[in-house]
Fold:
Amino acid sequence: MKITKVEAIPCTIPRKGGGMGSNVVLIKIHTDEGIIGAADGGTCGQDNVMLAIKQWEPILIGANPMDIGLIVNHMLRSFTHNGAAMGIVDFALHDIVGKALNMPVYQYLGGKACEKLGIGMMISHGTPLERAKIAERVVDAGVTNIVCKVGPGWGTTVFDDIANIKAIRDAVGYDILLGVDANGGLDYSTALDLALRLEEFKLYKVEQPVPTWDYDGLRRLRNKLHTPVWAHESAIEIPGLLECIKKDATDGACIKVVWTGGIYQSRKWAAIAEAANLAITCGSMVGSGYEAAAQAHFLAADPWMTKFAHANLGPPLLHNQWDTTNPPITDDLSKNPPVFKDGYFYPPDGPGLGLELNDEIIPKLITQGKAPISYGN
Structure:
């Protein structure tokens, strides 16, 4: 089997509940056997991702899509290295392999270690009351793990953050896991001050409180807090994860499969994290059913990953419904996005990623002012 054609289509998926939609790149990889792999990786820098995909024409055209490791190795070492672009290509290649083998991706990754995975929720904006209402809504939908964004990158002060966490904790009680995530937006002193003030609320994690490069700051915080300190941006790729482990800088690690470079790279990342006995949660870039499905296959095939709840949130957030079966979603990039219901999501059981491309809607979603690219025959 050989890759004969690659299409990259910039799409903007609106967010029905309000707020900014997701600017994604949908990729379609064609083969000489008529199998087409499709994928997106959620919100990304569309121009940079499409440039990287274009520059990888010599790597992709004529390659055997079954040789995922070899293709990823070439992309990883190219001068246009782009983790998000690499992840999108990786997802589509896995879709092809599963279709060629007539089995779900999770099956050839080692089998389905669990039938369903718990959903974690991320609350990014709003007043304390608004955040509390969001928390109540998702808990009513079955979610048992909530993380609230904090810090100046999200427009809040230390006192705003305390008020937000208090409101959420008062609304949902202490049976729900609650954490905070600063996305590296705090200096060390402010991070320490905030985390100490929040300890009364029994958080299960303080995620990436200090900048990506500050591994020593993460370690120092761990030594002064009762609340576990988790790395995200510092550990999103394998070298950063290794640095966190070597410096004893984290109690847990967060992954976004597309940022790490796709399923192939993420399996190596997860093996390292498990070997270090780190708890793991997976976020998302709020993509279509394709990003959600790719992550669901990766997560369901790894027994270590099935222990935790994951913020694999694209379809519920974009379509503003926590039960994606009622009513069925008809305007996603896939005709049959993964099922989200009762606080869980389910890896699709069809061949490949298990989704069918919704070709009719794609022209309606092309990002204004941008055009698809393609190469090959």
About this structure: The first strand starts at residue 3 and ends at 13. The mean pLDDT is 96. The chain has two domains: 3-103+357-376, 108-345.
